[in-house]
Amino acid sequence: MSGSARETRTGRTGRAGRMPAGRILVAALVFEVLTLVAAAAWWPIYESAAFVLLALVTVTVGIAIGAAGARWSWPSHLVLLATALTWLLLGVPLAVPAKALGGLLPTPAGLADLVVTTASGWRQLLTIELPVGDYQALSVPVFVTLLVASVLGVSLALRTPRPAFAIAVPALVLIGGIVFGGAVAFAPIAVGALFAVVAVAWLVVSRIRVPGRALAAAAGVVAAGLVVAVAVTVALPAPDRVVARDAVEQPFDARDYPSPLSGFRAFTKQPLADAVVLTVTGAEPGEKIVMARMNDYDGVVYNIGGAGDGSALFSRVPERLGGAASGASSGEPASGGSTSTVEVRVGRYDSVWVPTTGDPVAVTFGGKNADALQNALYFSPALATVADTVGLGDGDSYTVTTRDASPSTGGPASVDLTELTPGGAPSVQNSAVPDAVAVRSAEWAPASDSPGERLAGIVEGLHAGYLSGTGDGEVFSRSGHGADRIEELLTASPMLGDDEQYAVAGALLAESAGFPARVAMGFTVPAGAASGPVDIRGQDAGAWTEVYTAESGWVPVDATPEPRPIPDTALDDSSTAVQPPDVVPPAADDLDDPVEAAPVQQDDDEPGAPDDVLGTVLRIAAVAGVSLAVLAILLAPFLIVLALKRRRRIRRRTEGSARARAAGGWAELVDMARDVAEPPPANATRREAAHSIGGDSAVLLAERIDGAVYAPTDPAEHEIEEIWAAADAERRRLLGSRGRFERLLARLSTRSLRTYHGREEKRRDIR
């Protein structure tokens, strides 16, 4: 080796074949800082002290592994093994702390979550509301990212001829935080600037072959770029940040479930009217417990917008509902203020919609189904509505944390409607809105009035109607809130209906007056309720209108009239009563096209019988199909072994020459001996193998096969059949001497398959 080459080598690895400690220390320090700075981009995803501890420990340990591998020249597989052991030992206490024994030792359940979430947690991060904190095992993706990046980054920096390229590893961590993060970044200018400065510092100390002038120029370009970036950021408004979660389809679509409002009258009629549906502790008398808010009307039902409706988008959340909760009354994110809690125990309530109070910021489940319910929690910030795909049922319980000082809890009486102004453009009016809405709007809310006065006039006009939910002793009023039913309400004399119809009519009329509106459904805590647990019954269900205002965001408006007797003169006044018009479907553009009839809602007294039989059959078929699929997957390895053995037997018995087929019978017997773990000695003759396998019958079979194989003429077909019959008898003898479980294991054993080589085996047996 030349002197210069020797000098270069010792300069980089030291006299004892080790890399200089100073170089390792500098690289470790630089990449520790680079990786931690890049990890700061992940802060908006977690926002917890547990994340800070995870990042510090993981990056430090990963840098230590990479530095040790460089110092003592570990082979790559040893570095990989050390990284894998660190993943197993530190993964549970750092990323799944809830399942760590004493907070330090991994448990089998924690390791299972670690392994599963390492593969699947990435998508979960894109479909859950931020921040996630230390919720479940969702810290595993960042743990794996930081561990791999720290080990790989310092290893590339110290053990490759181009250490500058190692900067790409922490840069990918930085990009990952941006991609998986939310719409608001964490100090992007500071993080980017610090990362760039440290990266340039590494270029200076990494001894790369770059001329000094070029290096200075590069540093100058970076510095100038930072100055320009800061100036542009300060001078120009920040654009909307596009992240990966914006392109991921959310797994919850409210349209997959019936409209909550369509089941309103089921609560107000027996048997639910007197049944306890919820028991709440901590709620004030008169407070609204919101089941769901609905923002879309198609002329048939008022429902929650589908997955394509950005104003009704549901995201999977941990127990924290995120900082973007709009609340019942505010269209803007709430911040600050105190919080309070309401405990809810579920009774005769069965729904995916989770009743909450005020401006909910967290929902924590208890009881035997707590884990399943917590894992299936979804939240729409725009609607302040909580859903759970597992569904609430009798015996479930949860705690709702709400932000205080929400106008919605103060009731509609706390707001002067005449002082309100619209907070935005109303929903687009369409043909689904009945004509009577425009007529009543012109009557109750003339265009010459202010928006607030128009809204107050609409409420006053609706309050002139009468409340009738077809309860005992009440005047009949039809259920439903389709266009025909709202037309009937607004044109009948007197107006008869319940919360369901008045709330929808109020929303449609408010939109005609310029206010964005929606319908909310839930329960009202009974007046005079005690401070302890309070029973909420079905008869406490209610629906109301909410309008969006410039002053207070979303404001609840109760358009339902107070209960009062219906005058007999009004009921007898048929001259002014207007029958609901027939709903006529629009004419088809093409006369040959069939016209679909408009859906008609059914009366309470004539409920349509659902096709439960077909639904039951379909569910049974689905369960059976899934069960068969799972069973097939579980049995697939064993069925494959049996199929391969059967194919081998058929091939030996039917393919090749007559001598080869005769020898195949012996091969089947030898394979069975291998499968029962009694293989004959290697390279033994058939006679020697026969003594090892069994008794005299095996020896006679071996001699007979030798005679058929080495005879001057090919054996006849009947001789081959007799040889196979004798070989099968020997196989049965081998199996018959063992228990049932041992026989099953022998049939499923793969020992003989590992020694089977098809035609080569046949030629060897013939020889």
In short:
Residues 400-411 have a biased composition (Polar residues). By secondary structure, this protein is an alpha+beta fold. The chain has 25 helices and 20 strands.
What do these coordinates show?
The chain is an alpha+beta fold and 767 residues long. The protein has four domains: 226 residues, no CATH class; 154 residues, no CATH class; 157 residues, C8orf32 fold (Roll); 140 residues, no CATH class. Helices cover 47% and strands 12% of the residues. It contains 25 helices and 20 strands. The strands form six sheets. A five-stranded antiparallel beta sheet has the order 11-14-8-3-18. A five-stranded antiparallel beta sheet has the order 10-4-17-19-20. The protein has a four-stranded antiparallel beta sheet with strand order 7-12-13-9. A hairpin with a 4-residue loop joins β5 and β6. α4 packs parallel to α7 and α18 crosses α19. It is flat and about 115 Å long. The chain starts with a helix and ends with a helix. Keywords: Membrane, Transmembrane, Transmembrane helix. It holds the Pfam family Transglut_core.
SSE order and pairing:
Elements: H1 3-13, H2 21-39, H3 43-46, H4 49-71, H5 76-95, E1 100-101, E2 105-106, H6 108-126, H7 140-159, H8 168-180, H9 188-205, H10 212-235, H11 264-268, E3 276-281, E4 288-294, E5 296-297, E6 302-303, E7 315-316, E8 339-346, E9 351-354, E10 356-357, E11 359-366, H12 370-375, E12 377-380, E13 385-392, E14 397-403, H13 435-444, H14 451-463, E15 466-467, H15 483-491, E16 496-497, H16 499-512, E17 517-524, E18 534-537, E19 541-549, E20 553-557, H17 568-572, H18 612-654, H19 658-675, H20 686-693, H21 696-710, H22 717-736, H23 740-748, H24 751-754, H25 759-766
Parallel strand pairs: 15-16
Antiparallel strand pairs: 1-2, 3-8, 3-18, 4-10, 4-17, 5-6, 7-12, 8-14, 9-13, 11-14, 12-13, 17-19, 19-20
Helix pairs in contact: 2-4, 2-7, 2-8, 2-9, 4-5, 4-7, 5-6, 5-7, 7-8, 9-10, 13-15, 13-16, 14-16, 15-16, 18-19, 19-21, 19-22, 19-25, 20-21, 21-22
Biased composition (Low complexity): 577-588
Domain Transglutaminase-like: 491-561
Biased composition (Polar residues): 400-411
